[in-house]
Automatic annotation (TrEMBL):
Coiled coil: none
SMART domains cross-referenced by the UniProt entry: AAA
Domain of life: Bacteria
Cellular compartment(s): Cell membrane
GO biological process, one term: oligopeptide export from mitochondrion
Transmembrane parts of this sequence: 30-54, 66-83, 137-159, 165-184, 253-276, 282-301
Organism, scientific name: Dendrosporobacter quercicolus
Stored Pfam families: ABC_membrane, ABC_tran
Name the UniProt record assigns to this protein: ATP-binding cassette, subfamily B
Stretches assigned to the ABC transmembrane type-1 domain: 30-300
Membrane topology type: Multi-pass membrane protein
Keywords from the named record: ATP-binding, Cell membrane, Membrane, Nucleotide-binding, Transmembrane, Transmembrane helix, Transport
A single MF term (Gene Ontology): ATP binding
Domain ABC transporter: 343-578
Amino acid sequence: MPAKKMNRMELLAELAGTLKGYRLKTAGNIGSGIASEAFTLLSAGISAYMVALALQGTLDESSNKLFILLAFSILGFAVFRYLESLLSHDVAFHILVDYRVKLYSAFEKICPDILLNSKSGQLSVTLMNDVEILEWFFGHTVGSIVATLAIVLGILGFLAWLHPLLSLVMIISMAVIFTIPFLLKGTADKQGLLNRYKLGDANSVTLEGLNGVKEILALNYKERYKQKNDAFMEQLTDSQVDYTKRQGKEGGLLLTAAGVAAIAINITAILLVLHGKLSLEWFAVVGTTIWLAFNPVLALCDKARSFGIIFASATRVSDILHAQPLVKDTGRDIPVAAIKPYIDFDHVSFRYKNAGQNAVSDVSFQIRAGELIAFVGESGAGKTTCTNLLMRLWDVSEGSIRIGGHDLRALSLHTVHSVISAVLQDVYMFNVSIMENIRLGNPAAADGQVIEAAKQAQAHTFICDFEDGYNTIAGERGAQLSGGQRQRIAIARAILTNAPILIFDEAVSNLDTKSEMEIQHTLRALAQKRTIVMVAHRLSTIAIADKLIVFENGQVVQTGTHEELISKDGCYRKLVASQLQKN
């Protein structure tokens, strides 16, 4: 995350910087905003002026020009108000798309660290809701700020032209009005940030309930979950109510200040009329337009009441965009064909952030090209950590990992992910056809290649059993498929990548015995052309490996074949004995 939180001015500068690509439309938006407010005041001023002339009996045919000017002002107001709304929202919605694209790119760079340290609800609020909140700023605030300042300066000039005293009262009034949101901004920022985090927490609990609804029903956890959900929703409601109370108080103060200011200016104008310093018709103009003149100021201040939420959302978005990835993508691209698929762990140690001890310590081993290797050990021994380091989801704390003689850190992430493909225990399926889910491994693959990969993964038969075959929609997260079916599709996906190194992390854990044996034959066939690393607990899967690497407490304690290690008194034989006893 960034070294320090940005203050309002820094956030404002960053938000304004995103407008650079939309300079022409932004200028049109600002110009239209100024014009629409100016025509509003002009229409009211002309009307008041004409009424004053009529009351004095001096409105004659020579005043026809005023009627024409009034009609022009009304038309101008309508046209420029439309243009202001159109251009402001056109820019705002394009910028929101830009932000969402940039946020997703940022998520990719800082994963998996952010996923371990943030709730999914908080991330979804940032990616969707917080970005949407920024529409208030780009669609309703940027142009308003400039337009309001221009109108205020224009009114001050007009009042100064009528009499300097009117301008002085206006300056004092504006100073008081703009001071109110400034004095309350500290409270607004704190409440806004708290509100966004409470919304994220509430979303997290809701998503948790949706994703775990089967477990909630199966374990009869409905009432407990409802109590938990109600507690988080109540906290969110309390936060929103507190924020709304502060908005109401601020709005009341602003309206009171504007009302007092308008009365003060009118009283000043009356005194000037009584002393012969201001004509009656110009008094009518001042008396009518001054109330309208405060409208854009109050509208801007009304938006300022929501700055707490806007800047809280901008802070959360900025935190993601400026977060520093733990893995720096500074390596170079190398053709996959130029990298031989042998692996070397050289005195590797790694510790997760904020962990008290190393997850793996001084791990060294070599894997030859074309070998089928199994990582063996109890849960938490360091097996998955080593596969994550091999995929460069993290960088080693000490030592080095080399593929084909190249240090992973010297390779670009694109190269690493092209050389290595993985099938994980928790398979994610997208809500598209089975054909497209498999084709994720190689978007350019023809249908025939996809089907061949499915056959190798022992998935072709069950896919054809579906009414729509390969065109069957998998459902969100693969809801239409069983765990074993999802794993076989994930294996087909990995096969289709044609990556020279394949990682299988408990990839056969959800398969029945027959399917497991078929996949084992597939793995043996694949190992003729590729290097395969398996993380497995099943003895039947472990036994087919060319070599076993046994982990215990984050260290490699044994290496060898199944036959070699089972004949020795050590960690592996104890693991096998324990598994046989359970069976």
